[in-house]
Amino acid sequence: MKIIDLNGQEITVTDLDKAIEQAELFKDMHHVPPVPYDKVRQVYWNDIYKKLLELKSKLDHEQPSR
């Protein structure tokens, strides 16, 4: 499974649930006190998180019903 980040880089996802967990944690992280680059990182990780959730939803819908 692969996603493309905001920089156009392809990221291979080997454990989707773990990747979602990690992105969820990172998307709201910031320094104390905040530094200017925190906003850029939060935008990046929010985008990754959204793309991972979309990938999971797509895969869930492709699974045959039991």
In short:
This is 3-isopropylmalate dehydratase. With 66 residues, the protein is mostly helical. Helix content is 56%, strand content 9%.
Shape: elongated
SSE pattern, N- to C-terminal: EEHH
Largest sheet: 2 strands, antiparallel
Helix-residue proportion: 55-70%
Bin the strand percentage.
Answer: 5-15%
Whole-number total of structural domains: 1
**Number of helical stretches of at least 4 residues:** 2
Rounded to the nearest angstrom, the distance between the terminal CA atoms is 23 Å
Structural class: mainly alpha
Rg over C-alpha atoms, rounded to the nearest angstrom:
14 Å
**Lateral strand order in the biggest sheet:** 1-2
Please tally the β strands and state the result: 2
**Parts with pLDDT < 50 across at least 5 consecutive residues:** none
Mean pLDDT: 94
Protein name: 3-isopropylmalate dehydratase
Structure keywords:
66 residues, 9% strand, two-stranded antiparallel ribbon, single chain, 2 strands
Q: What does it look like?
A:
This protein is mainly α and 66 residues long. It has one domain (2-62). 56% of the residues lie in helices and 9% in strands. Strands 1-2 form a two-stranded antiparallel ribbon. The longest helix is centred in the last third of the chain and has 26 residues, at 37-62. The radius of gyration is 14 Å and the shape is elongated.
Q: How is the topology of this model organized?
A:
Layout lengths: L1 E3 L5 E3 L3 H11 L10 H26 L4
Antiparallel strand pairs: 1-2
Helix pairs in contact: 1-2
